[in-house]
Amino acid sequence: MLLSALGAIYPPARILTSRAELAPYECDALTSFRASPRAVVLAESTDEVVETVRACHRLGVPYVARGSGTSLSGGSLPIEEGIVIALNRLNRILELDPEQRTAVVEPGAINSQVSAAAAPHNLFYAPDPSSQSICSIGGNLAFNAGGAHCLKHGMTSSSVLGAKVVLPDGELVELGGESIEPVGPDWMGLFVGSEGMFGIALEITLRLMPSADRTRTVLSAYESLEAAGNAAAKVVAAGLLPVAMEIMDKLAIEAAEGSVKPGYPEGIEALMIVELEGDHETVDREFEQLLEVLEGAGATEVREPDDDAQRALYWEGRKSAFSAVGWLSPDYIVQDGVVPRTRLGEALAEIGRLSEEHGIRVANVFHAGDGNLHPLILFKGSEEGALERAEELAGEILRMCIRLGGSVTGEHGIAMEKRAFLPEMFGEEDIEMMRRLWRAVDPAQIANRGKMFLPEEELERDEAADPDAAPSSAAVAGTAGPPPGGASSGEARRDTR
Predict the structure, then answer these.
(1) Are the C-beta atoms of residues 311 and 321 closer than 8 Å to each other?
(2) From the centroid of its chain, how far is CA 311?
(3) CA 148, CA 216: separation in Å to the nearest integer?
(4) Which of 247, 266, 394, 265 has its CA nearest to residue 318?
(5) Can you tell me the mean pLDDT for 117-123?
(6) Are 303 and 265 within 8 A, CB to CB?
(7) pTM of the shown model
(8) Which pLDDT tens digit goes with each residue over 30-71?
(9) Chain-centre distance of CA 233, in angstroms?
(10) Could you check whether 215-309 and 329-454+488-497 share the same CATH topology?
(11) Element (H, E) at 310
(12) How do the domains of the chain map onto residue ranges?
């Protein structure tokens, strides 16, 4: 019945059902979880998406919406009894209004292409995740993506004004509008970051920012990662608001030099890239203050790029860090936790201690301005027990983030990866309120089923066995089933070979 319903919407060439056709959709960038859907449909119009959702609702078939598949938390992991609605062909920029500084795009539009289209009008789209050259706006919206320059301009939620959305029951609704100050309940704010569980955005209205008159960047070197973290806190404490402030440790620097060769200082333990933007007078005045703060915070070297080309290379080195770590290790875990900025140095020192205690190398790359850590835990998957030891370390880092008053995710989301940690971060009443809201929007639970929340029956089983125990790895695997080779505790495994 399902295939018959899909056949009434799509031509046969855009309904994928064979094992070979489904294989590329079995996982996203979190490769430790895999599942094969019943079918994948390649939507080419919003009407097709709406009709597909209505068919799923009528038949009780769960669906997963997928754009570029760059999620690092299993956000677009298929549901075995369901379908995948592929949105990457819905990639048009429908409208760009330079006067209103807005753009209307389809969910499959690529992040960097929005800024490219806006550039001739001296505008740009602010959120810039490291995967911006391939990630889609729909996915950015689902997980409230950030990026290096979100410190001043904010996350995706600060740049999305409105959206036309198809809810899980097939109803079409308009959320938000063209104003940054909506009247009434902020439904758009509720939808952003809902990880695909509240429906699919079909047309998204984005806020564009004017390009700065002047941009100045500085790179500072430090004798320890903890010193770099403390320097970041001092920059903000001085009253400065950079557009970006990023830190890399020795291993991440080594990886970047082995890949894109940005020409960072040699033999240093950590570096920080800080960027200011605005009008000429303000930027030049703040830049002098910034230099004083960095030198007072123990920087062993401070350098400003010679030109725009060198500045771009510095940023390319930072943004390539995730993939460049493949030069150092065949396998690694990408984590995503947050700590208060004032405790950044403490957190980095603790990661160093945990790394030494476990005998596992950790490369650190993170958004220092908002305390968003991205520790890259290096291991060799061919060694027996290596993945499990790396996952144990990853879990300890996340629990450290909670203990220091932070969060288990900054921008990658909960999805499959961190479901077991949600009950450690929130109380039972908080989670039940989230579940009630979810049920109110999607009573049949067909939209991205199995994500964010542990299955209730698995959670109850664990609590009955040991009320004080953390959820088991089997509970984390949940309805999607365990990854090849056994159940995972939920952290992200990346194989770069």
Answers:
(1) no
(2) 24
(3) 15
(4) 247
(5) 98
(6) yes
(7) 0.89
(8) 988 999 999 999 999 999 999 999 999 999 999 999 999 999
(9) 23
(10) yes
(11) helix 308-319
(12) 2-86, 93-210, 215-309, 329-454+488-497
